[in-house]
Amino acid sequence: MVIGNILLDIFISDAGSLKEKRMVIKSLKEKLRNRFNVSVAEVGSHDLWQSSQIAVVFVTNDRKEADKTFQFITNFLDENFPDLHINIHKEIY
């Protein structure tokens, strides 16, 4: 069993309020859940209106599959959220 963990440090330059930030983050979380069947939660920067920290976690059978999932998620974020500045930190357990 392999556990993949992705920590996304996100900067939302267009957000002018917490409400705008939450709309963007909610959309991102729902799309990741629906597309990749992963667990997603906002784990940091709750009260900052232009920053967020999102954790994405999944379980798979082997490391190759985890690497593929990492790549699919990274590509998905690049294609669907080009206006967000996202730093991605990946770990496998």
UniProtKB/TrEMBL annotation:
<dbReference type="InterPro" id="IPR007546">
    <property type="entry name" value="DUF503"/>
</dbReference>
<dbReference type="Pfam" id="PF04456">
    <property type="entry name" value="DUF503"/>
</dbReference>
<protein>
    <recommendedName>
        <fullName>DUF503 domain-containing protein</fullName>
    </recommendedName>
</protein>
<dbReference type="InterPro" id="IPR036746">
    <property type="entry name" value="TT1725-like_sf"/>
</dbReference>
